[in-house]
């Protein structure tokens, strides 16, 4: 039996499904991933220069400009068939928990409610100094040129610089989101890990926790994954084709 059929059968039987996504799920919407050899963001930029609090302290306009460039890309992007199929899955399984590492809002725009964002959001900036949310971001920013420096806005309460509401390296993940993700992984019977390289912790514990707790785990990725257990499966190809194919094989479309 093909891995696609095995996972589709597990999907039909699943009582609690966890969908765990990474940048690859948004790639077909035109959002660059981080680590892909040809198109990844970090082929062109050094993460240490841009995705840490130290980088923001050193050069807030460089970092803010980079995130405004990415926010503009997300605002003009649309959910792709993978996002839409994940939203559709929720109509067929008794319980679905959607956990994403992505900082875009494409799952929400595809119709998935209650998305657990482990690495924050590009759309919820806050003050770097006092942490209060900043609510005056332009809804339709001019797409800034790549690499253009932009001074961050100032906090209305304390005057501190506004930072993107994402989780940088060395920062704690939002505690409640992480706890919910771990609890869901421990209690699910099937986890679909879609479009993630699985190298960033503690998020990368999520699929492993599900496997250790007895669930079936399927990795949907353009790169093959070498399974470590008979309950682990690798489906190789674009998420925008494979997730709809799973729905179809399960007889739901
Ligand atoms: C497709 C596809 C298609 C393409 N279809 N597939 C344990 C061991 C070692 C290190 C650590 C550890 N614990 C903690 C650390 C340190 C660090 C870490 O993990 N470092 C590793 C990189 C080594 N972690 C942290 O610092 C975390 N905080 C923390 O641990 O706090 C506690 C602490 C504090 C102080 C000291 C010590 C501990 C925070 C991590 C925050 C990560 N943030 C980022 C940036 C967010 C903001 C922004 O967007 O700029 O989150 S990093 C970046 O990576 C982003 C992503 O969410 C994350 C994961 O990437 P993802 O989604 O997997 O993307 P890619 O590009 O890597 O992969 C894409 C995949 O898709 C590929 O596999 C493709 O093949 C595939 N693909 N197209 C299907 N069409
Ligand atoms: Zn402030």
Which structural traits does this protein have?
253 residues, Rossmann fold, six-stranded parallel sheet, two-stranded antiparallel ribbon, binds zinc ion
What is the percent of helical residues? 25-40%
**Model regions low in confidence, pLDDT < 50 over at least 5 residues:** none
* CATH domain fold name of the largest domain: Rossmann fold
The proportion of residues in beta strands is 15-25%
- Gyration radius, to the nearest Å? 19 Å
Question: Cofactors and ligands present?
Answer: ligand BJW, zinc ion
Structural class: alpha/beta
| Level-2 CATH architecture of the largest domain | 3-Layer(aba) Sandwich
Categorize the overall geometry: elongated
How many structural domains are formed by the residues? Answer: 2
Strands side by side in the biggest sheet: 3-2-1-6-7-8
Major sheet attributes: 6 strands, parallel
Overall pLDDT metric:
94
The CATH C-level name of the largest domain is: Alpha Beta
Would you give an account of this structure?
The chain is α/β, with parallel strands linked by helices. It has 2 domains: 1-29 and 78-121 and 173-253, TPP-binding domain (Rossmann fold, 3-Layer(aba) Sandwich); 32-76 and 126-163, SIR2/SIRT2 'Small Domain', CATH 3.30.1600. The protein is built from 11 helices and 8 strands. It binds ligand BJW and zinc ion. Ligand BJW binds at residues 22-24, 27-28, 33-36, 40, 51, 101, 103, 119, 166-167, 169-172, 195-197, 199-202, 221-223, 238-239. Substrate binds at residues 67, 70. It is found in: Cytoplasm. GO terms for molecular function: histone deacetylase activity, NAD-dependent; NAD+ binding; protein-malonyllysine demalonylase activity; protein-succinyllysine desuccinylase activity; zinc ion binding. The active site is at residue 119.
